[in-house]
């Protein structure tokens, strides 16, 4: 919208699609024309006042990578402490602060903003829209994240240190924390507001600004997964806001929502939190499914197997995610009937997830496959995500979960789906789309070093944790008996290797790409790729699709 309208004109969505005024003429070619002005902003103004979806997507991705590094440093402090039995580096209190902030920063500061960055960059390109629907709100929803991130990171330097209640912020621990608990609650509120605004923007863009001829069932899978994810975010972020607001009033305003002394119930907090928290884990994986569903067909040189079933599977996952929350709470003393319900519902949600994995495998079956870096990460994703899915299925069974709850088995499980799931899919997406973003090809050798290093070190880090959990090592403990020493040492070595691979990725892959070093990328660098994003030059010009593209019958190519 912003890219094509002067400020006096506020179009309806119908006009929006059809391109609007062309009063900027020659500026288009220079790729630096700001939305409503006739001068070209450069330097800091281009980024501070950014309303172009590509610039905002870049900001989100850089922010997310920065937070990934911050959260990664916290993780390495945790692993350094656990390298040997006994207390080496940090005391137990600081250890719990590290585990808490590592979780919060990775979930709300790294994974979610990174997927929003992909959404900002790719959704308008994939549906033939000129920009996101609400360009200024897009800018605002990004810049809100900066003060929130600062509040989270600086909480370590407040009196009493950072919150040490675990990333789930369970009562009654949260009612006993120092002032940093309040700043963290405020930060979560701001991040939630940012997520809701971003989601509204994505939904309106997808529903109102598709190019003529692109029906919903012709949309790329990435767009579908984000449409459903955005609805999930709008549904559950207010639930989190409610839970942390009740925590805040318990702390300062004399309420007793979670304080048993005043008639409250700490288990109620868990119900509210996980009603947000379980759809949240699907918010962090559905866009990953979308990215993988773009890459696997491209490098198999085949259409995606079972497109319609994929769309319905994503919708089924989203709907079922609302009725499985209490599988996180099998040990809270819920009645057997409740345990059975949540056990069966959780096992049921693995069915649409399996549909997706079967469809990816069927897409590759007898395809003309090549293994460039995006495909390596996509296949690596399928492999490790499936392992994480199986451990999730094991944990869904109430009698087994009673034994494994709060052990390192659970830590292994969710890192297999979140690191190997979300993160590997983002790497796949970066290698797949970066030529379109930067206009240069990355080094295939460096990409493969990044892939194999990440895959090997990831498994060295998290695979031993399954055995630690089965042997009974609890989470969030700074010390452990000697019997767990070897696997912990192995995991710590792997963690440092994995961290170094991500630094390598930025220094040797991302940074040269941002500087424009590398062979010039063709308009369509992957011969099996389909979709509107490959119909624009590389790098993608500052303004794309000012006149909506005319699509062929498959809605993947521009006619004429």
Automatic annotation (TrEMBL):
Belongs to the heme-copper respiratory oxidase family. Residues 1-38 are annotated as: Disordered. One of its GO terms (molecular function) is heme binding. Its EC number is 7.1.1.9. It comes from Comamonas terrigena. It is found in: Cell membrane; Membrane. The chain crosses the membrane at residues 59-80, 100-121, 142-165, 185-209, 221-248, 268-292, 304-328, 340-362, 374-394, 414-433, 449-469, 489-511. This is Cytochrome c oxidase subunit 1. Residues 15-37 have a biased composition (Basic and acidic residues).
